[in-house]
Amino acid sequence: MFVSENLGVNENGHLTIGGIDTVDLAQEYGTPLYVMDEQVIRSNLRRFHESMQKYYDGKGEVHYASKAFSCLEMCRIVASEGDGLDAVSIGELYTAVKAGFPMEKVGFHGNNKTDEELEYAIEVGVGHIIVDNLPELRRLEKIAAEKGVKPHIMFRIKPGIDAHTHDFVKTGQIDSKFGFALETGEAFEAVKEAVSCENVKLVGLHCHIGSQIFDIDPFVEAAKVMLGLIAKIKDNLGYEIAGLNLGGGFGIKYLNEHDPVPFEKYLEKVSEAVKSECARLNITQPMIYIEPGRSIAAPAGITLYKVGARKEIPNIRTYISVDGGMADSPRYILYGSEYEAIVANKANEERTEKVTIAGKCCESGDLIGENMPLQHAESGDIIAVCATGAYNYSMSSNYNRLQKPAVVFVNNGQSRIAVKRETLDDIIRNDI
Ligand code: LLP
């Protein structure tokens, strides 16, 4: 009935998540509120890692992309499932360290890492650093020499695959700020330089073609292109690349009309391509890594808001204003991303209206969505926006000096706070 399978309706007609009444959650913890269902996170992680084990005969690892949603509790959950992590800043690394994450299972990304970040990544012992460009390789070589260590690196490659998704989240094409281009020979030249470096060890290649992708083909194509480069490196340089990281990007269902491929299917098809290409190119199958973010966190989350003003503009539209907005839910203004919304305290009523849900920020574009089918909403109602577990909390801001909402985890009928709501003192904490 709802876009996320963990949502239901109880005997009071209230929306539930993981079996807990969302109206009670709103009352207990306040609104706006991010709610994450631990069981969904765990089950998604397991689906990924079981498939990786199955399709790559034990030579496959899942590194959850923590940019989708990161906090100490999330890192602890990923660690307890035995999966790895993709971190893209010193802040994400620090969160993992503080959560006691096994850092040898962390890949460190970024197209413009600072020396401070590289030094920190080495100090905390990340498993590998995914190098984006030659100046970074040279800086890392110098830092490693000074520290007397030999970090493992991968190279971020642009495989030249144009995935069909929003322009802002495409990354595999040649016109991208990320990585070395394959078509121009830049990637091969960089590999030549890396294999002659004394203080870093090239252990893998990486690509990530984009996010919220619904087709299997671009993933298959990217894998083939990357294996072609691995074969070229072996044939020309006699150097064997041990690991291939194929990134994340698996599309999820935000609306009922979305019909994403189950991610097991992507992995199965990609693994078939990997196996046949390795045989054809006569190379040893590398260790395969993937970095799903959205597909693990998004379906686990909802955001709860309280309705304030209802404004009907005859023949134009009805605005339902809520107590959050673009500061906690920036994806509509950024990408026009659509979500399903439900009046949580009227969850078994018909959706009789199409409304615009507006935030409280001082900006007309501050909308949660337009043309959203919704039950009749009045001041004081609670609205749940579904599938917000990825790239909402992690992209939230303090615009208009709003306090960031709390994050609550639910599990087996219990709820617990994972991130406290910011206080007014938090808002001025760094002001002098
Ligand atoms: N690996 C790398 C290197 C990435 O850059 C990303 C996402 C991922 C993995 C995870 O991709 P996922 O499985 O989550 O699609 N803020 C945008 C999404 C940006 C994605 C950035 N990179 C949004 O809200 O749609």
Structure, described:
It is a single chain. The protein is built from twelve helices and 21 strands. The protein is an alpha/beta fold. The longest helix has 21 residues. The radius of gyration is 23 Å and the shape is globular. The site of ligand LLP has 22 residues, from helix 10 and helix 11. Ligand LLP binds next to helix 10 and helix 11.
| Amount of helix | 25-40%
Structural class: alpha/beta
Q: In percent, how much strand structure appears in the residues?
A: 15-25%
Cα separation of the termini:
51 Å
Average residue-wise pLDDT? 96
Count of β-strands = 21
Helix tally equals: 12
**Rg value:** 23 Å
Reported for the largest beta sheet, the result is: 9 strands, mixed
- Unreliable parts: none
What is the molecular shape?
Answer: globular
Small molecules (ligands, ions, cofactors) in the structure: ligand LLP
Write the layout of secondary structure elements.
Layout: E1 7-9, E2 15-17, E3 20-21, H1 22-29, E4 33-37, H2 38-55, E5 60-65, H3 72-80, E6 84-87, H4 90-98, E7 106-108, H5 115-123, E8 128-131, H6 134-147, E9 152-158, E10 180-181, H7 186-195, E11 201-206, H8 217-237, E12 243-245, H9 263-281, E13 287-290, H10 294-297, E14 301-313, E15 317-322, H11 331-335, E16 341-343, E17 353-358, E18 367-374, E19 382-386, E20 406-411, E21 414-419, H12 424-428
Parallel strand pairs: 4-20, 5-6, 5-13, 6-7, 7-8, 8-9, 9-10, 9-11, 11-12, 12-13, 15-17
Antiparallel strand pairs: 1-2, 2-3, 4-14, 14-15, 14-19, 16-19, 17-18, 20-21
Helix pairs in contact: 2-9, 5-6, 8-9
The structure holds ligand LLP.
